[in-house]
Amino acid sequence: MTRVIRFGVIGCGLMGREFASSAARWLHLENTRARPEIVAVCDLNTSLTDWFSSNVPSVQQVTQDYHALLANPDVDAVYCAVPHNLHDTIYPDILAAGKHLLGEKPFGMDAAANARIQAAIDAHPKCFVRCSSELPYFPGAQKVIEFIRSGDLGEVIEVEAAFLHSSDLNPDKPINWKRMVDVNGAYGCMGDLGMHVLHVPLRLGWKPSSVSASLVNRFPTRPDGKGGTVASETWDNATITGHVSDHGGFPLVLKTWRVAPGNSNTWSIRVLGTRRSAMFSTKNPRQWQFMEYDGGAQIWQVEDLGFQSLFPAITGAIFEFGFPDALQQMWAAFVDELAGGDANGFHCVTPGEAADQHAILTAALQAGMTNTVQDVAYPI
């Protein structure tokens, strides 16, 4: 019998609703050892919780007080999607209540906040904890990861990981919390997008020992939505260049851009080696590219992919895969591991990887603000 894991959702905005959609169509997946069921929701905005009440029949508790949700004995695990400045308050409270946690990135608005979350994790070892990052679950991304793991790259020449938005290209877009240092954190776009670009490099063991960074605040003011103008304090774009000392030494380029003309929501990974190279971009979600070089012709091969997901699904293999599918695959990995599985070989971001992300972003922020190269001080 498939195990049911009862979830509470704290933060019922865009990603909370996406989780509800993934849970509602769990029958899309085949032979899963467990399935999520959303039984409680919490948000200060009642229009958001009303959406859950109207669309998710399993919801039994609706509250504006997350403490009430955490006191509910029918809640086994919590998905928490709240602004960054609330992570180090709410995440420890979730763990203190004995609930398992999938938390949104970046797992604290800065390294100090992340350390407080890690202390709570250490204090509650029976709680299973992971961080959200769904885009590496695209079949093309998984192909690149499998290709890298299965053979000798030779000398690594460069690795580039990018997440490019055009969401802030319009200077007349009103400000929101992601442009406010006291809510988003000083990382700016790096805190919002950094875990996405670091998920695969960190999983493959590519940790930069030092970084430099180019930080851009292209639009230092924005409309306040009330007819006035306010300061837009956080970084719009960041290009981080790290030096990975292992594997012969190579540059790791990380791009987290919210002002990227022509890009809606483009995530990509590119790995160049002297023997094997591979790349994937969500801009061309059906295809991945690879090259094997043995001294002869240098030929990039392109393979068309269908619905070849990490967790098997009912969709025919010839059909297309999209963002809601990647998100459901991430949830399948979390639920499978929580129920005792191995996430089919690719688990969600661990707390340790989230902490490494903070070490890299902290160094990158300092490097960009001082125009220097900074060593990365990883947690012990």
Helical residue percent band: 25-40%
Count of distinct strands: 17
C-alpha Rg (nearest Å): 21 Å
Q: Mind telling me which CATH architecture of the largest domain this is?
A: 2-Layer Sandwich
Tell me, what's the shape? Answer: globular
Give the helix/strand class: alpha/beta
- How many helices in DSSP terms? 10
List descriptors:
single chain; 380 residues; Rossmann fold; Dihydrodipicolinate Reductase, domain 2; 2 domains; nine-stranded mixed beta sheet; six-stranded parallel beta sheet; 17 strands; globular
Summarize the structure.
By secondary structure, this protein is α/β, with parallel strands linked by helices.
Structure description:
With 380 residues, this protein is α/β, with parallel strands linked by helices. The protein has 2 domains: 3-131, Rossmann fold; 138-374, Dihydrodipicolinate Reductase, domain 2 (2-Layer Sandwich), CATH 3.30.360. Helix content is 31%, strand content 26%. It is built from 10 helices and 17 strands. A hairpin with a 5-residue loop joins β14 and β15 (287-292). It is globular and about 65 Å long. The mean pLDDT is 97.
